[in-house]
Design goal:
Elements: E1 2-6, H1 11-22, E2 26-31, H2 34-42, E3 48-49, H3 57-63, E4 69-72, H4 81-103, E5 107-111, H5 125-142, E6 147-153, E7 155-157, E8 164-168, E9 175-177, H6 178-189, E10 197-203, E11 206-207, H7 208-216
Parallel strand pairs: 1-2, 1-4, 2-3, 4-5, 5-6, 6-10, 7-9
Antiparallel strand pairs: 8-10, 8-11
Helix pairs in contact: 1-6, 3-4, 4-5
Bound molecules: NADP nicotinamide-adenine-dinucleotide phosphate (NAP).
């Protein structure tokens, strides 16, 4: 299996790359800063230097050659204001969808967010914009004929993963460790029966493999 991770140097992306590499999958992905490529290489992870906002769909499709599953874990992360969020979390996904089509990739996993995260709290215009862009990106992907999965994690933490989660079409947002998000994505990569589904993810009581397997029966 070859998996391409947009955002491979990020908190979730790098953890996913490590898990997949350790289990013998071939991994590639986009990183922006040269030192990130060096760090990934020391971990035995192959990745490609590139900026999602500077690649058009044909150029990205060229990088995706031989990919079985595309994971979109890139995001502006609040840096660069609303324009960066639109360019990466929004237009970046549009480019990835078109590139997947051109490269003949059927399966695309998107790391999204709970649309109602922080409901009831005072949030900044920047955060509202982020949620708006993410929701529109979900809608755009859901309207395609790809075998997409939209994974919506709750607030991310750098706590050590527990290996236990809640995974369901609708959950109350709490939090979840990036380790557990990556492990859930790795399990979804290996579970092609789960397709065209939106799944919310929080910390929880169920072993990750059981939680994912249960979704194949729903
Ligand atoms: N933070 C939360 O609580 C939360 C909750 C739910 C969902 N999410 C979603 O989960 C996603 C993954 O989270 P995370 O913690 O892994 O985020 P992260 O560490 O910020 O990783 C995102 C990666 O995307 C990369 N990226 C940004 N712009 C790019 C571009 N133009 N070209 C190529 N790569 C680019 C970043 O590169 P650099 O390293 O160069 O910046 C970074 O490595 C987020 O993007 C967010 O949408 C977050």
């Amino acid at each position: 299996m070859k998996v391409f991770i947009a955002g491979i140097a990020g908190g979730v992306g790098s953890r996913l790359a490590r898990l997949l590499t350790a289990s013998g999958d071939r991994v590639d992905g986009l990183y922006r800063r040269p030192e990130q490529g060096e760090r990934l290489a020391t971990e035995g992870i192959h990745a490609t230097h590139g900026d999602l906002t500077r690649l058009d769909a044909p150029a990205l499709a060229n990088l995706l050659h031989g990919t079985d599953v595309l994971v979109f874990a890139a995001g502006a992360g609040g840096e660069g204001g609303t324009a960066a969020t639109t360019a990466i979390d929004g237009t970046g996904l549009t480019t990835a969808i078109e590139a997947a089509r051109r490269a003949g990739i059927q399966r695309l996993l998107l790391v999204s967010v709970f649309p109602e995260a922080w409901r009831g709290r005072e949030v900044s215009d920047t955060f509202e914009h982020y949620i708006d862009v993410k929701k529109k990106a979900d809608a755009e992907l859901a309207a395609t004929d790809l075998d997409w999965v939209i994974l919506r994690p709750a607030a991310l933490t750098d706590d050590v993963g527990t290996g236990h989660i809640s995974l369901s079409p609708a959950l109350v947002p709490t939090q979840v460790a990036r380790d557990d998000v990556a492990a859930t994505l790795a399990e979804l990569v290996r579970t092609p029966q789960i397709r065209r589904r939106i799944l919310e993810l929080t910390q929880g009581p169920e072993p990750i493999s059981d939680a994912v397997r249960r979704q194949t029966r729903n």
